[in-house]
Amino acid sequence: MEGIGSEGGAAAAPLAQWRSNFARAFQYYLDRSTPHTVNRWLGTLVLAMIYILRVYYVQGFYVVSYGLGIYVLNLLIGFFSPKVDPELEALDGASLPTSGSDEFKPFVRRLPEFKFWYSITKAFVIAFIMTFISLLDVPVFWPILLCYWIVLFVLTMKRQILHMIKYKYVPFDIGKRRYTGKK
């Protein structure tokens, strides 16, 4: 009875080893890319352009593109939102300042930049792969999807900007003072 099932385990061991080695190498290169923010975003931009060219070339997959747009919009909201939202969570000491006399606390994002980049890049790769599956090319009138996405974007960003104004936070580092050391 020892022979039953042992062949499946022997075949799975090299596969598991390869998967482990691949995951380790992938994580190594992902960790090495962390400080190269501009290069990472340029790579994602190139990937997005390849996806757009693919959709334009095949004249289809508008539902996949719409889903990708909704997902990216959701990630954008997480990127612009504070980790601790004063409207939703009880104030436990790690909140945004609401008045001029409050102590300054740095803006901490709900979705950090690296996870934002990684999620968007992964989404474009998955959407690109989906363009090779003809079953997912659902015939739709794409201008309606585009108009609906634009309306969603405008309403969502309006709400997010009003939230930023109400709680006086800026999710960008542009124009903020940086410590340069002793001169």
From TrEMBL:
Topological category with respect to the lipid bilayer: Multi-pass membrane protein
Intracellular or extracellular location(s): Membrane
Any Gene Ontology biological process: protein retention in ER lumen
Keyword Transmembrane helix: yes
The UniProt record lists the keyword Transmembrane helix: yes
InterPro entries for this protein: Rer1
Principal place of residence: membrane
Bilayer-crossing regions: 38-57, 63-81, 140-157
Family the UniProt entry places it in: Belongs to the RER1 family.
Function comment: Involved in the retrieval of endoplasmic reticulum membrane proteins from the early Golgi compartment.
Stated name of the protein: Protein RER1
